[in-house]
Design goal:
Elements (H helix, E strand, L loop, with lengths): L1 H25 L7 E4 L2 E2 L23 H8 L5 H28 L3 H12 L2 H9 L4 H20 L5 H14 L3 H15 L4 H11 L1 H10 L9 H5 L10 H6 L17 H22 L5 H24 L2 H13 L17 H23 L21 H19 L6 H6 L3 E2 L4 H8 L5 E5 L4 E2 L9 E2 L2 H4 L10 E3 L2 E3 L4 H11 L4 H6 L2 E7 L9 H5 L3 E5 L3 E5 L12 H26 L7
Parallel strand pairs: 4-9
Antiparallel strand pairs: 1-2, 1-3, 5-6, 7-8, 9-11, 10-11
Helix pairs in contact: 1-3, 1-4, 3-4, 3-6, 3-16, 4-16, 4-17, 6-7, 6-8, 7-8, 7-9, 7-24, 8-9, 10-24, 13-16, 14-16, 16-17
């Protein structure tokens, strides 16, 4: 009974510790309000528009994320949904790291806590939170669980329904965004090897069904991405670190404004050095054979992936790498998804957590082996006077102390990850005018917005620029150019129709030109800076519908109604398939617990 209680304690303590770190990181978001920072836009309610399903003019970068929120926000507040997903993702990332080390390394409890700390308390998590990539972190969180599910499939001759369902659920959860699909899919295929490659590939492709289908039927992939985005989104060298050093320290995001303050000075060098020392101490133990060939193989693959996840993005940031990436995004449809190379550093984290956990026991073993010189070894001592402890005793004695030391070395150089990354991640409140305006959009036509551009600085949104919430707030498609201002330059997007509509407004063109583009509404956001040009000339010719002071809605007369996309039902079906894969583990658990027929 005592051993059983100890086993339960060892299993649930990492889960509780992961929850504690998650709450420490996200505490300001627990207040009422909405996540609104840079690329993260949560709203009370969103709608299943063409853009939400990936059928708009721009690439389906937020698919099936936007479709899921549009479906669920009809019954649950959209801001609450985003918070739940983000908290669950961070918790799963930390607890998954503990489960990974427990299964592949048989790590003791103290070592599992180190793994939890490294998985959550690192620059990658901080920078992606500040960039607003909450849904990318679901893909990050799915990595350890995807690895474990794939290892179990390899170990079985054919794999049970529950094993395949677990893998499907992991890949679907990661597939909340296309990048998450790539991260988890590449990991699963690498671990699967030839033995289960075909089946894993099929499940991975099915989990990508929403954005693959939307890309195929919308024709957006045929448009080449702007090659200027390659240099703009390349990994960046942080102060005191070369690009490869920044990436090895799990930092180096392209946006210098989306980093915690501790990564802008000497602490970044110290944090990277301490992290790499901890990782290197465990490399030998992770790579060593331990009598279980499947687990040994998986660990070695994760080590190789960790090295590749650091080296390849660093090479992509060199002049030759930039040239190769520019060719790729121009010549290969859909390759623009790869231009933010730093996000693939997530693939290094599973290998890192294994090494950090292994270091907790590998270092004491090395200390022991050095003390046991031939003249002092037990073989040369008298049996009755030998007090040398068993082989496992020394690691177990020192592992908790080393784990505490390692946890401090990981946490202390990055103190501002706590409390919403130094208070930057917080809940905001939208003015009631947004809901009032949304209720007045009751006719045909898409919506054009002023001022021009996709980013806003509202009085309530803080100092960082944020994506315009209009596309998720309003019940019609909001035209967006996809243009991204990065480091003083503008990376053009795929929204050709949106660019034309914006040009008409800024040049003071006639309303008929807007109507011909399918624009039935114009929303003016007055409390944010941005280009407005001669739009007053055009607005004077439109019908005012609603004005709240900060927002003004106009109707465009005689709009040309655009036909509904012919493949909408197919894309909706792909979303339903993805949702079924996401729920597959729950269905498998229900089937497993179903009582058997006693006559069988």
């Amino acid at each position: 009974m005592g051993e059983q209680r100890t086993g339960r304690w060892a299993r649930w303590l990492p889960a509780g510790y992961s929850l504690l770190l998650t709450l420490l990181i996200t505490a300001p978001l627990l207040r009422p309000g909405y996540l609104l920072i840079r690329d993260a836009v949560s709203t009370p309610r969103s709608y299943p528009t063409d853009a939400a399903l990936g059928l708009g003019d721009a690439a389906p970068r937020a698919v099936p994320q936007d479709g899921l929120l549009a479906a669920l926000s009809t019954v649950v507040d959209g801001g609450l949904l985003v918070k739940i997903i983000l908290l669950a993702a961070l918790w799963a990332a930390g607890y998954g790291a503990a489960a990974l080390t427990r299964d592949l390394l048989r790590a003791p409890l103290a070592a599992q806590l180190v793994a939890v700390t490294l998985a959550l308390w690192n620059p990658y998590v901080a920078e992606r939170l500040l960039q607003g990539h909450w849904s990318l972190l679901t893909g990050y969180a799915a990595l350890p669980w995807t690895i474990l599910a794939t290892v179990r499939l390899r170990a079985a001759a054919r794999g049970s329904v529950a094993d395949w369902a677990a893998l499907a659920g992991c890949l679907a959860a990661a597939g909340l965004t296309p990048t998450g699909s790539l991260l988890a899919g590449a990991t699963a295929l690498a671990v699967a090897g030839r033995r289960k490659f075909a089946g894993v590939l099929l499940v991975a492709v099915l989990s990508c069904a929403p954005w693959l289908t939307a890309t195929a039927v919308s024709g957006v992939a045929a448009e080449p991405s702007d090659p200027a985005g390659v240099a703009a989104f390349a990994a960046r060298a942080e102060p005191g670190l070369a690009t490869v050093g920044s990436l090895a320290g799990l930092g180096g995001i392209w946006n210098a404004d989306a980093v915690p303050g501790s990564r802008t000075g000497p602490l970044a060098v110290l944090a990277t050095a301490l992290l790499l020392v901890i990782v290197l101490l465990g490399v030998r133990r992770v790579a060593a054979a331990d009598g279980d060939p499947e687990r040994t193989r998986a660990r070695r693959i994760l080590l190789g992936m960790a090295g590749a996840a650091v080296v390849l993005p660093a090479l992509a940031a060199t002049p030759a790498g930039l040239a190769a990436m520019e060719w790729l995004v121009v010549e290969v449809p859909g390759a623009g998804l790869l231009r933010d190379t730093q996000k693939f550093v997530a693939l290094a984290v599973p290998g890192y957590v294994l090494c950090a956990a292994a270091a907790c026991t590998a270092l004491p073993r090395r200390m022991k082996s050095r003390r046991q010189t031939p003249e002092n070894s037990p073989d040369h001592a008298e049996p009755e006077k030998s007090h040398t402890p068993p082989r496992a005793a020394l690691p177990n004695r020192w592992a908790p102390a080393l784990a505490a030391l390692f946890i401090g070395a990981l946490v202390l150089p990055l103190p501002d990850l706590a409390w919403g990354v130094g208070g930057q991640l917080r809940a905001v409140h939208y003015p009631d005018s947004w809901q009032e305006t949304a209720g007045r959009v009751d006719g045909p036509g898409d919506i054009a917005v002023l001022p021009g551009g996709m980013f806003r600085r509202f009085p309530y949104s803080g100092s960082a620029p944020v994506l315009d919430p209009a596309p998720r707030m309003l019940p019609r498609d909001v035209l967006q150019t996809g243009a991204l201002p990065v480091a003083g330059r503008t990376v053009t997007g795929e929204g050709v129709r949106a660019r034309r509509a914006e040009e008409v407004l800024l040049s003071g063109g006639p309303p008929a030109d807007l109507a011909a583009l399918g624009v039935g509404w114009v929303l003016v956001e007055r409390d944010t800076p941005g280009p407005r040009g001669d739009s007053a000339i055009t607005l004077a010719q439109l019908e005012p519908v609603h004005d709240t002071g900060d927002l003004a809605l106009y109707r465009v007369p005689e709009v040309t109604t655009r036909p509904e996309p012919g493949h909408r039902a197919l894309v909706v079906g792909a979303h339903i398939l993805w949702a079924a894969l996401l729920a597959a583990p729950l269905l498998a658990i229900g089937r497993r617990r179903r009582p058997r027929d006693p006559k069988a």
